[in-house]
UniProtKB/TrEMBL annotation:
Name assigned to this protein: Alpha-D-ribose 1-methylphosphonate 5-triphosphate synthase subunit PhnL
Localisation per UniProt entry: Cell membrane
Membrane topology: Peripheral membrane protein
GO MF terms, alphabetically ordered: ATP binding; ATP hydrolysis activity; ATPase-coupled transmembrane transporter activity
GO cellular component: ATP-binding cassette (ABC) transporter complex
Transport as UniProt keyword: yes
Similarity remark: Belongs to the ABC transporter superfamily.
Superkingdom as given in the UniProt entry: Bacteria
Keyword Phosphoprotein belongs to the record: no
Chief site of localization: membrane
Keywords assigned by UniProt, alphabetized: ATP-binding, Cell membrane, Membrane, Nucleotide-binding, Translocase, Transport
Domain ABC transporter: 4-239
One Pfam family matching this protein: ABC_tran
Amino acid sequence: MTMLEITDFGKRFTIHHLGKTMPATEHINFSLEAGEFIGIVGKSGSGKSTILKSIYRSYLPDTGKILYDSARFGLVDLATISEREMLYLRKYEIGYVSQFLNVMPRTTCRQLVINALLEMGETEEVALIEAEKALAHFEMNPKLWDSYPNTFSGGEKLRLNIAMATVKKPRLLLLDEPTASLDQQSKVRVREMIEKLKNKGTTLVGIFHDIEFMEGLCDKVFDMQTRELTLAKETVTHES
């Protein structure tokens, strides 16, 4: 079953003070089946993050379709569905992990992960247990669990971001450089969680600078330079 299909995707950005419109990327076509993991590779500025943000509807594409097979709504175009439907999908079906953390400043680390689970309908008791498991898995120091994330280092914020997204076990998970500021041990923890989610049926789209991290994880690789989709064993090694 095809979970996600992108056809003739294109996105432009307007620089208003210069009166210019710049293309971010165009003519993007790929699809993936339920439970597959596709890695997107390409040079900086090639539009990799633009694709992920458009799937999550942070951006609206200028051309093309982003077809997603939703458990709630059936086959929908993420570029045209209503804001109410998109908010539902973000809450229950589609997760997004970026290099940056954007949360309420007066909510503790532990409560942020608990809130992610409460949104899914879990009880307070279950949410607390699962939140602490997730924080422990990503080796967040227990001394930080009841601290505010605006005091955290970049790596700590990223691990919290990953914990908040993965604890919900989304149907589709978007990973935008999820290991960018992590040490090797933390990268291993992220890989373990990705493998666990994938084994349980989560469909994933990811961007990684670390090509070695992708080996053995991705089923397919989309190359922004060639616009080709290949099996992971045929992965190219362009700068990403």
